[in-house]
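Running this now, will post back.
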Amino acid sequence: MPNALRSRRTSVLPIDPLAYAPTPARPLRAKLRRLAAATQVVPHSHPWAQVAMSATGVIRMQAGRSTYLVPPTRALWIPPGVEHVVTVVEDAEIRTLYVHPSARFLGDDGETPFQRWPECRVLEVSPLLRELVAHLDSAPGGQTASEREACLAALILDELRRAAPVKLGIELPADKRLRQLCEAVLDAPARWSTLEEWSREAGASPRTVARLFRSELGTSFVQWRQQVLLSHAVALAARKLPMATIAAELGYASASAFTAMVRRTLGAPPTQFFA
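Update: finished.
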C-alpha cells in the first residue's frame, strides 16, 4: 500500500522562484499555489528563507533530514539553501513567504529571523498571522513594496517573532533500508502497530530495525512512530474531527487509549496540545 501510494503521486515543478524573489526593497514576498492531494513538488532550494503555510488542507514538508506535517494551524520556517520537498496530503491552498536576509523584526535590537532560527522550525499560526498573510500581495514580479505591503510585512514578521515553536519535526534516517520503512510509516502510520509487523514488511528482522533506529536516529521505533502519530493527529484536529475519530484514524481502540499516549509522550492532554 505505501509503495502504491507513492506511485500514484504526481510530480510538479516549483513555480519560477525568481518571479517571487525577495529584495532589500521588498524583503517579504508572498506566493499562493493550489495543489491537489497526492501532488509532490520536486526537491528544490532557495537562496532566501521560506515560511510554508497551508490556508486549507495539509501538506508534508521534507527539509534536510526531517519531515513535517503542516496543517493550517502551523507554519514551517526553512532557512536559505535547505533542500525541501512538498507533498500534498489533502487538497491544499499553500501560502508561501519568501524572506530576504535584510528582513528585520520590529524593535530597536535589529534582530533578524535568520539569527533567531538558524534551523528548520515549526511555528504556531495565530488567526492574526493567517489574516495578514492572506492580505499580502501574491502577484509575481515587482521589485518595490507599496506602503501598505511594507506595513503588512512588518506586522507579519512581528507575528512570526511572537509565534510559539512546536516540536513536531520527524527526523529521517540516511540508511536506505530504514528510510524506506520510515516513509511507509509516514504514508500510513496506522497500517501496523508493532515493530515486528513493520519489520516483516521491510524484509528485515526486528533486531536489525531496532538497531538502525538507535544508530541512525538515536531513538526507538516506538518513540519515533509516536512522533509520527502526533503529527498526523494535529493534521486531523485541524479538520475539527472529534477525539474518538482521530483515535480511530490512528489505530487506537478508544479515545482514552489515544489520550493516554499523548499524556505519556507530552505530559499534557490532547485538548491542551491541539489548542
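Residues 1-5 have pLDDT under 50 and may be disordered. More later if anyone needs it.
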